[in-house]
UniProtKB/TrEMBL annotation:
The keyword Hydrolase applies. GO terms for molecular function: hydrolase activity. It holds the Pfam family MazG_C. Residues 177-271 form the MazG C-terminal domain. Keywords: Hydrolase. This is MazG nucleotide pyrophosphohydrolase domain-containing protein. InterPro entries: MazG-related_GP37 (IPR011379), MazG_C (IPR041407). The keyword Hydrolase applies.
Amino acid sequence: MNDLSLLHEYTNTVAPTDRLPSDNFRPILMGLFGEVGGIMAIAKKSYREGKAFVEYRNAMEEEFGDTLWYLAALCRRSDLDIRDVFPAVTTIEDRKEIAETAHSKIAVDEALLELGKAAGTLLRIEKPDRDLQEPLRQFADRYLMALQAVHIPFPQIVDANISKVRGRFLEPEPGQLPSFDEGFPEEERLPAHFEIRIVQRKSGRSYMQWNGVFIGDPLTDNISDPDGYRFHDVFHLAYAAILHWSPTFRALIKQKRKSVPKIDEAQDGGQGYCYRRRTFRVDLFPCKRPRLFPGANERLLRPSENGSAIRSWLRGRGLSVAALGTGDTGRVCGF
């Protein structure tokens, strides 16, 4: 073992993202059990959706990564070195071998059920101490078996989880953030400082005002049961302020990067701001109750089930169709 150990590198990198109580290991156990349940839920969904579940691999990757995070947190609270829990993974060179040589191929269902049993055993733990090493080794063994069964490389899990948790729970270094407008003239850049005033009038419509000028269209919730959609532009403003990225806001203030036609077309004038092109897509802004499509046989808007019906309904009204989402019940609206 050396300082370049893969798991040692992982635990040190994600340790600052651990915000749960250091003197209470029960939230860690519950979190680990919940992530294992998430893995099984994805497997169940793959049975139901079949090939339509295009996010299967990405979803599995995320859940396995989160499970590893909780396992590392449990080792941390038990004063155990995670390398003693995963004895087969010691150095970065082992990355290429872990998914191929740890176990023989077994059925996904069997591997996941064994992982669930091992997680259930951990729930019997009364207190974190070094006696946990053996049950944790058994869990880690089942974890690797399940990981191999779903054919996702271990280093891919590690790298993706590091990127996720550090990006979500740690403040970014300002100097490391991308500058999408660098090299473009001032009139094509998003403003570094801006103030937007959002006003709701007696009519119930909301208006946006920038530098004393109204921009965009007045909005209502466009539904009988109010859900706050009339204020959804705050999300576009937040993207611009925090991420320095918002095709919608850029279009509203007419500061597209037209000096580079490919960027203007693909990023500033494409699906990011599709209202001008009369393109509609599914907006997954949550609705309090499902809406029905007029003229679409009164079927619920569930893209994974009725995508062809939705496209036909839109095309019949002279509208082009952007990529439809695969989430739960939503509504179609200009975006």
